[in-house]
Design a protein that fits this description.
Elements (H helix, E strand, L loop, with lengths): L2 E3 L2 E3 L4 H12 L4 E3 H9 L7 H19 L4 E5 L2 E5 L6 H17 L3 H12 L13 H27 L3 H14 L4 H13 L3 H19 L5 H11 L43 H11 L2 H4 L9 E6 L6 H11 L8 E5 H4 L6 H10 L11 H12 L5 E7 L2 H4 L10 E6 L10 E4 L5 H12 L1 H6 L1 H10 L4 H13 L5 H9 L4 H4 L1 E2 L2 E2 L1 H9 L3 H10 L11 H6 L3 H13 L3 E6 L4 E6 L1 H14 L2 H27 L27 H7 L1 H13 L3 H10 L1 H7 L2 H17 L3 H17 L3 H17 L3 H18 L2 H18 L2 H17 L3 H18 L2 H17 L3 H17 L3 H17 L3 H18 L2 H17 L5 H8 L7 H16 L18
Parallel strand pairs: 6-9, 6-10, 7-8, 8-9
Antiparallel strand pairs: 1-2, 3-5, 4-5, 11-12, 13-14
Length: about 1000
């Protein structure tokens, strides 16, 4: 069993994970119950913690999928788990589909295609199914897969023999007979193949070996079918020979009525600098060339049609013409070509059909005037001919349908800016922009290799400014050819000015603006408006609901308009299957044209209103995510930023956890903060920045945290926004606190408190005091800490901030534990946990459970501590809190240390250390380092004290870590067991 992502084999750690993955992959897109998974892993003797261990394994698999880019998703259901995967992403599903396809082809008499399908299906196998997965239940399922493989092999051999490929299958048969010596059908096929190869004696020897094996192993004689086959071979029975299959002759005209028809050759010339598209060409040739082009019209085979779609300037026509020339020999009766947009601007096809009939030798007077009769005459003229039709730049399916031949001996290549999805039975090829290497190669072919190689960096920059569009690259290349004295960097400089870029991409008859204008003109008014407004979106990619905000309309209405732009290849769809996200993107050159149309059409007031609706929609989404994460509008300062919701108050549901949503839109959110700053929307700017802190904190995105907060602080100060400035200073102070920069944090908190007091924001003061109190704790000033917590608690309760209150209670419980007041700590934790359950805040529940674990640990109840930390780990993983996961792994490592399970403890602590480094949690790195030092000392490693001394002193240490360090040092001096591991650590909470 393997998972392969981008040709990299992923490592699946541990037997239990492999067994659970195998069970889920055997039944993808179907719920597999927890009981089944337990049975697969432990059979009849599961441990009491089996459910928890299954949950841990599933979480590990989820992390593996996310970190590797694996498109699979693991979903939790009420009674088990479900592996979401597309059919083509799971080998045994793909194998089954190809098997069914092969049988369908066989039924239709297409044995050659059936054999190709079977070979492709069998090529998916590398050995016995799920070998090495140690589970009786998995292996029982694997037997069925191996049986399917055997049946597919037998069917392939039978069909190949029917096709007369006896020589080719002999070697395969001999190997299969060795692997499956009791399979009589294989013995029979081997005998037949050898006989048809003229090897009668070897065929009879094969029968004798089969008989010996059957008698020795199972004590039976060969079947009557095998014995009859032996007799037929002995007698040279004619029934064993292949039936004669002479080639069918083509249809003939009646005697005396033959006429000489013209052979049209209307294809335009192939571009001399045609570059790339090798895979597209191969696919088109496979679909239309070779055997496909030569098959007859048996009455049920459709005309083969290839539709090449893509945006204007991407090279659809060049590809179609290049492919048509490559297929010329396969269509000896001629090639017809028409540009449908030029010849039939209203969509009528009659004019094109008339041209085609004249090209085929029909006199103008003989062409029917009625469009239907004209189309029928065209189809009649093509019966029995092998002719290729190229229809360039089609507008719609209605335009194409009358131009399709009615026989399977002809083929059609259509290009269109839309996908023509309603055209039945078409093979579709979508053409994207050229990549960097192909773009530079195209420039080399136009301008000259020496000139481009001399300025390789500039050529790459030029290719990117052209966006990989062949038309833009050809225009740029033509300009360089016309100006041999220009260095490439000169044209790069001219194109770098976005306002002039489309003007610069003009040369002679070549220009980019005209095809863009044609595309724009083909849109209906609502699509044209959205086309213009999308240029306001500063994000590289954006979700679909953005269209509703820009148009100020309902979500469903906006989605329909958006999809029309997708259909016209104005927008790209960007899918992230592993995250189940769909985003939209506009090509840079199209965006420039859209912005031109925006400024030419929309007033400044309308442009500003649309931009503010867009930013207001982002703020509404951030509100939703924060509310879902904390169970209400808690732990955050609220301003007066203008929100936007769809008419009627419709909100778009978050897909998955709030953190997953934030993570998916992290880049867009930071771009939204910058855009809000650029247009002076100070309230929206600081509110977006503050609500995004939850993501930045839990995922360790400290650079994004710093950028958005400093940008928003600058805008708030410029606007004289006191509350916004206070909120951003409070956020910056929390960031400095996370990074152990205590002096900077103290200054930011002091200034934030002063500004909150100035504007009368008691809630903001409570939040800032809460985090400033934690700073006092780090410095060991418990008197100041308790005073701040007391005041913060009163202000937060007055504001109705339940989760802010829960955070303070949790931190006060931590203090109570430090002075051995277990009863007081439990009362505080009960309050914090109760609030978190009441609000549905999983994050708060995890914090309280973590503190409960410390309480159990101090009481010496290691099993209860372990259970609490297991639950904590599950909760923080549920909300994608990576910092919380570090804490939970560290806590479990320390518990396992106390339980003398040193190998397991070291494994978890090292995993926690790796994750802490990944998310940049420097404070936690030190804390985990102390834990590893304790563990090493307990195992007799005398370098533990040295490691501690090397680590301490780099930052202001947390009192918890001082306690841990003292414990190690005291144990070293006493030569005794190092006793308590101290408190499990701390975590401040920000305003996000």
């Amino acid at each position: 069993m393997q998972i392969v992502v981008d040709n990299e084999v992923l490592e699946i750690a541990g037997r239990r994970q492999r067994v659970i993955l195998a069970m889920l992959a055997l039944r993808p897109n179907t719920v597999v119950s927890v009981e089944q998974l337990i049975d697969a892993v432990w059979d009849t003797t599961p441990p009491p913690t089996a459910r928890t261990q299954v949950q841990i394994c599933v979480s590990a698999l989820r992390r593996l999928f996310r970190s590797s880019g694996c498109p699979w998703r693991l979903r939790t259901r009420s009674d088990g788990y479900l592996l979401e995967a597309a059919e083509e992403q799971v080998d045994h599903l793909l194998f089954r589909r190809q098997l069914e396809s092969a049988r369908a082809h066989e039924k239709a008499g297409e044995l050659d295609r059936a054999v190709r399908e079977l070979r492709a299906a069998l090529a998916l196998w590398r050995g016995p199914a799920l070998s090495g997965v140690m589970s009786d239940l998995v292996q029982r399922n694997a037997v069925r897969l191996d049986d399917s493989r055997m049946r597919a092999n037998v069917e392939r051999i039978r069909m190949e023999l029917e096709l007369g490929r006896h020589a080719e299958v002999c070697a395969d048969l001999q190997l299969l007979v060795e692997e499956h010596p009791l399979h009589e059908e294989l013995h029979g096929y081997l005998m037949l193949a050898l006989y048809r190869c003229g090897r009668q004696a070897e065929a009879l020897e094969a029968f004798r070996r089969a008989r010996t094996i059957l008698i020795e192993k199972v004590g039976v004689e060969p079947s009557s079918e095998l014995r009859l086959l032996e007799r037929a071979i002995l007698n040279h029975d004619k029934t064993l020979d292949l039936p004669f299959s002479g080639a069918r002759t083509a249809e003939h005209a009646e005697p005396g009525t033959a006429e000489t028809a013209l052979i049209p050759g209307q294809l335009p010339a192939v571009l001399a600098d045609f570059t790339g598209r090798e895979s597209h060409l191969a696919g088109i040739q496979q679909w239309l060339g070779g055997e496909a082009s030569a098959r007859g019209n048996s009455g049920y085979q459709p005309t083969r049609v290839v539709v090449i779609s893509g945006r204007c300037g991407v090279g659809k026509s060049s590809l179609a013409i290049r492919a048509a020339h490559a297929l010329a020999d396969d269509y000896p009766d001629g090639h017809l070509y028409a540009n449908l947009r030029e010849l039939a601007p209203e969509g009528s096809s009659a004019r094109v059909i008339g041209r085609f009939l004249r090209a085929l030798g029909v006199e103008g007077s003989a062409i029917p005037e009625d469009p239907d009769e004209c189309a029928a005459a065209f189809r009649t003229r093509l019966v029995g001919k092998r002719l290729l039709v190229v229809l360039d730049d089609a507008v719609s399916e209605q335009q194409v349908l009358p131009l399709l031949p009615g026989c399977a001996t002809c083929a059609v290549i259509v290009t269109s800016r839309t996908k023509l999805s309603a055209l039945p039975g078409a093979h579709r090829v979508h053409v994207e922009e050229l990549d960097d290497a192909q773009s530079v190669e195209l420039l080399s072919r136009i301008v000259g290799e020496d000139r481009i190689e001399a300025e390789r960096t500039g050529a790459l920059r030029l290719a990117r400014l052209c966006g990989g569009l062949p038309l833009a690259l050809r225009i740029a290349g033509a300009r360089l050819v016309a100006k041999p004295h220009w260095p490439v960097r000169k044209l790069v400089g001219r194109l770098s000015d976005e306002a002039r870029r489309l003007d610069e991409l003009t040369h002679g008859y070549l220009e980019l603006r005209s095809p863009l204008a044609l595309t724009y003109a083909s849109l209906d008014p609502s699509a044209q408006r959205l086309f213009r407004l999308v240029s306001l979106v500063e994000m590289h990619e954006f979700p679909g609901w953005v269209a509703a905000a820009l148009l100020d309309t309902e979500l469903d209405v906006a989605e329909d308009v958006l999809e029309r732009l997708v259909d016209e290849n104005v927008l790209d769809v960007v899918e992230y299957p592993q995250e189940r996200l769909v985003r939209y993107r506009m090509h840079d050159l199209i965006r420039i044209y859209a912005r031109e149309r925006l400024h030419a059409t929309e007033s400044a007031e309308d442009r500003d209103a649309a931009a503010r609706r867009l930013l207001g929609a982002w703020l509404t989404r951030a509100d939703q995510a924060h509310h879902a994460e904390y169970g209400g509008d808690y732990t955050v300062v609220r301003g007066d930023g203008q929100r936007w919701v769809a008419p009627g108050g419709e909100l778009l549901a978050l897909d998955g956890s709030p953190i997953a949503w934030w993570e998916g839109d992290r880049v867009a959110l930071t771009a939204a903060v910058r855009q809000a700053a650029a247009i002076g929307a100070d309230e929206v700017c600081w509110e977006l920045a503050l609500r995004s802190v939850t993501l930045f904190e839990s995922r360790g995105c400290f650079d994004d945290w710093w950028e958005t907060t400093t940008v928003a602080l600058r805008v708030a100060r410029k606007a004289g926004n006191t509350r916004g400035s206070a909120a951003m200073l409070y956020s910056l102070g929390t960031l400095h606190l996370f990074r152990q920069r205590l002096d900077e944090a103290e200054r930011q908190f002091a200034e934030a408190l002063a500004l909150f007091e100035r504007c009368g924001d008691s809630h903001g003061m409570g939040l800032a005091l809460r985090n400033a109190a934690h700073l006092d704790w780090l410095r060991g000033d418990t008197t100041a800490m308790l005073a701040k917590y007391e005041e913060a608690l009163g202000r937060l309760r007055e504001a109705g901030d339940l989760m802010g209150e829960a955070h303070v209670l949790c931190n006060l419980a931590k203090y109570r534990l430090s002075i051995e007041d277990h009863r007081g700590a439990r009362e505080l934790l009960d309050g914090a946990y109760g609030i978190s359950v009441e609000t549905g805040c999983v994050r708060g529940q995890a914090q309280a459970l973590y503190r409960y674990a410390e309480l159990h640990l101090r009481a010496g109840d290691l099993d209860e501590a372990e259970a609490a930390l297991d639950s904590t780990l599950a909760l923080v993983r549920e909300v994608c809190d990576r910092i919380g996961e570090v804490h939970a792994l560290y806590g479990l490592g320390m518990v396992y240390t106390k339980q003398q399970r040193r190998d397991r403890a070291e494994e978890l602590l090292r995993r926690a250390l790796s994750l802490a480094k990944l998310v940049g949690a420097e404070q936690l790195e030190e804390q985990i380092g102390y834990g590893l030092a304790e563990l090493a000392f307990a195992g007799g490693d005398l370098s533990a004290v040295t490691r501690y001394r090397a680590a301490v002193g780099t930052r202001t240490p947390d009192p918890d870590r001082v306690r841990i360090g003292k414990t190690v040092a005291e144990s070293d001096a006493a030569g005794a067991d190092h006793g308590t591991v101290g408190q499990l650590g701390t975590r401040c909470r920000s305003g996000g």
